[in-house]
Design goal:
heterodimer; A: 380 residues; alpha/beta; Rossmann fold; 2 domains; four-stranded parallel beta sheet; B: alpha+beta; 60s Ribosomal Protein L30, Chain: A; Phosphoribosyl-aminoimidazole Synthetase, Chain A, domain 2; 30% helix; 22% strand
């Protein structure tokens, strides 16, 4: 496949891996966090960790929108979908996310709620147009990447005068979460970030500057292809070895410093910051999420249906929080692979294929390590 | 399927629709069976008009299998539910190394289903069964109220004869054996998906639906009992099939990503949809595990057949108490290939 295979070239990968092995100082450990689920997925799917020396550890960050959505918000969505007049439109990823008391949107659908899986916000608009007697609510989630399409849908609904369309807004912001991880007192020491790919195409590289200047952490913005990731790791390694803290852009083919001005303006026009928002596993983070501005109140499902989020408690044994903060690995959780599997997810990291637990499970990283350990034990 | 001699008006095969009376056991049902199924399947056993088909069988071991088909949409590039229902069930018999003899077909039809489409499906089944040399000798028709089914569901059952001395089974893979794949993967799943409501995209990919028993017959002639087992990687794709083999045989499987043929259009569609071709369904491919010494000759036989032109050696069986399927990626790393969790796409067969 043109424009894809170039970024998956095994020979080039091995050449970069050799450089990494040469330049990594054996006397020390390197700990880098890839923020995005897209990176976590690429790392697992292409076996990138196999190409790295043992003293480079990748910590899988919270950049999976499904994973960080708190349970209370799913409970709200289920209550909303239970209303007779409501058709809830959602991305398929959300269907199996566990809610309170073993509920999920999937189960609510089986119980008769009108929940429909859509591939884009425009599908939801189409449903609202086609079925004017239904109250069509789009369950909006995601980082800065999926926010512009939601803005577009609201703009379109306004233009078309759709009185039966609204958005349940759960959009969250990447830089705020990165800062929250760095501010965690008992956090794992992270020395640098593989920075977001798609998010950065929208917001640009400028919003990460404070991580270099205030926190002294290098950030390398990288694409989601495996060569992007391994090259970003080499760039981070060099920054650390040379004592630099810079925002570097590996993903120049898509990311500029200032981002997509049109998308940024449109988001600013329609959304404003919430004072604080709960992130599953990370707790309340100030100024980390968006809501609709007063001007667009008629499209705001929270106002329209007087929704009030009731706090919900995760399973106390679930380690998603510590895993999302990089303090624990999926296999450190007692539930992992036993009570919690992709078929029966207990925690959010197991739900989306971008969640670190699901990626570990599906691509069997932990099992390969176990096998290797067993083989070593047998041999010795 | 009883053949009656009903009186009255003929079915309106152009604009008519299936009504509840078409399943009620009266004249209307007899018309439906006579004018659609008997015409399409046409053979002496069905023509006899009995509640069952009686036929002679050679001595030896028989194989029997049954499968239900609920694919949506009913017609897709390269095939339809009828063709799939004939090929899929024949293939399940063929995977035992067996020669399929006769099959049955049962239809659950939703009230209001267009008779023209039913006829098209029946004709497609008739063509597929004649081409395969496996007649549909008995059947059944039921009509359910509107909303109680999705158009039409088809179930087929097939019986076959297993060659003497052949006992293929999922638990027979042994470390050192070689894994062969008969061609490129993912075509069926992508073809079906390209026509799904609200996901439609343009592609030239056709379903690979095909009856594999002739290919299998050639393979059995070449390698006989050196073939440990065969499986057709349908739902869940190659990933699911290799995991089944690993667990049934209590072994590990190691495969090379670069050895697995994937058509460029399929790879592109999977990329776009975020799917892994290893998880996507096939309806005309098989995986064979074979003793190492017989592998080369068997591969040559497969490549010489039109349904195995792109056959490839994709990996080998290894000792592994964990029964992992592991793959060396084209990128140079390694990963475990697991069963797919949940549904990748609903109702592909």
């Amino acid at each position: 496949m043109k424009h894809i295979d170039e970024y998956r070239d095994g020979e080039l990968a091995r050449a970069i891996a050799r450089r990494i092995a040469e330049e990594a100082r054996s006397e020390r450990q390197y700990r880098f966090m890839e923020f995005c689920g897209g990176h976590t997925h690429a790392i697992s799917r292409y076996g990138i960790e196999d190409l790295l020396p043992e003293n480079i550890r990748l910590i899988h960050g919270p950049g999976c929108p499904v994973c960080v959505l708190p349970m209370g918000r799913i409970d709200d969505a289920i209550r909303l979908a239970a209303r007779k007049e409501v058709t809830l439109c959602t991305y398929a990823d959300l269907m199996r996310v566990p809610a309170s008391g073993g509920a999920s949107l999937m189960k609510a659908k089986a119980d008769g709620a009108d929940i429909r899986m859509v591939y884009s916000t425009l599908d939801a608009i189409a449903i609202a147009e086609k079925e004017p007697e239904r109250e069509v609510v789009f369950f909006a989630i995601g980082f800065e990447t999926t926010t512009p399409p939601t803005a577009l849908a609201i703009r379109l609904a306004q233009k078309k005068g759709l009185a039966n369309f609204s958005v349940y807004c759960n959009h969250v912001l990447t830089p705020a979460a990165m800062q929250a991880i760095l501010d965690t007192k008992d956090g794992v020491e992270i020395e640098g970030f593989v920075g977001p790919a798609h998010v950065s195409t929208v917001i640009g590289s400028a919003p990460y500057r404070r991580f270099a200047s205030d926190y002294r952490k290098p950030v390398v913005i990288a694409g989601f292809e495996p060569l992007d990731v391994i090259q970003a790791i080499l760039m981070l390694l060099r920054q650390i070895n040379e004592g630099r803290c810079e925002i570097e852009n590996q993903y120049r083919r898509a990311v500029t410093e200032s981002g997509n001005a049109k998308a940024i303006d449109e988001m600013a026009e329609i959304f404003e910051l919430r004072d604080a928002f709960e992130w599953r596993g990370l707790g309340e983070i100030p100024s980390s999420a968006l809501k609709l501005r007063e001007t667009y109140a008629q499209f705001d499902a929270e106002r329209r249906f007087s929704m009030e989020t009731r706090p919900a408690r995760d399973n106390p044994a679930c380690e998603c929080g510590a895993i999302l903060r990089g303090q624990k690995r999926p296999q450190d959780c007692k539930l992992f692979g036993v009570a919690c599997t992709p078929e029966t997810p207990m925690g959010s990291c197991m739900v989306s294929s971008e969640g670190s637990c699901a990626a570990y499970w599906a691509y069997g990283r932990f099992r390969r390590y176990e096998t290797r350990q067993n083989e070593t034990r047998k041999a010795s | 399927m009883n053949k009656h001699e009903p009186t009255g008006r003929k079915l309106d095969l152009r604009n008519g629709r299936v009504e509840l009376s078409h399943g009620a056991g009266g004249r209307a049902m007899a018309r439906l069976i006579g004018e659609i199924f008997h015409v399409a399947f046409d053979n002496e056993w069905l023509g006899a008009g009995n509640d069952q088909a009686a036929f002679d069988v050679p001595a030896g071991r028989m194989a029997m299998t049954t499968d239900g088909y609920v694919v949506s949409p009913l017609f897709f590039p390269g095939g339809d539910i009828g063709k799939l229902a004939v090929h899929g069930t024949i293939n399940d018999i063929a995977m035992a190394g067996a020669r399929p003899l006769h099959m049955s077909a049962s239809f659950i039809i939703e009230e209001g289903f267009p008779l023209a489409e039913l006829k098209r499906i029946a004709q497609s089944m008739g063509e597929a069964s004649r081409a395969a040399g496996v007649p549909i000798v008995t059947g059944d028709t039921k009509v359910v109220e509107r909303g109680k089914a999705d158009g039409v569901f088809v179930s087929t059952t097939c019986v076959g004869i297993v060659p003497v001395g052949l006992e293929l089974s999922g638990d027979k893979a042994r470390p050192g054996d070689v894994v062969l794949l008969s061609g490129s993967i993912g075509d069926h799943g992508v073809a079906v998906m390209s026509k799904r409501e609200n996901l439609s995209f343009d592609t030239e990919v056709l379903s690979d639906t095909a009856a594999l028993h002739e290919l299998v017959a050639r393979m059995v002639e070449t390698a006989g009992p050196a073939i440990r087992l065969m499986r057709d990687p349908t739902r869940g794709g190659v990933a699911a099939t290799l995991n089944e083999i690993a667990h049934q045989s209590r072994v590990g499987v190691r495969i090379e990503e670069t050895a697995i043929p994937v058509a460029p259009q399929v790879a592109a569609a999977c990329e776009l949809l975020g799917l892994d071709p290893l998880n996507v369904a096939n309806e005309g491919k098989l995986i064979a595990v074979v003793a190492r010494e017989a592998a080369e000759a068997l591969l040559a036989t497969m490549r010489a057949h039109e349904l195995g032109g792109r056959a490839a050696r994709i990996g080998e069986i290894v000792e592994d108490a964990h029964c992992f399927v592991q793959m060396t990626t084209a990128f140079g790393g390694g990963r475990v290939i697991d069963w797919l969790s949940g549904e990748q796409l609903p109702r592909i067969c």
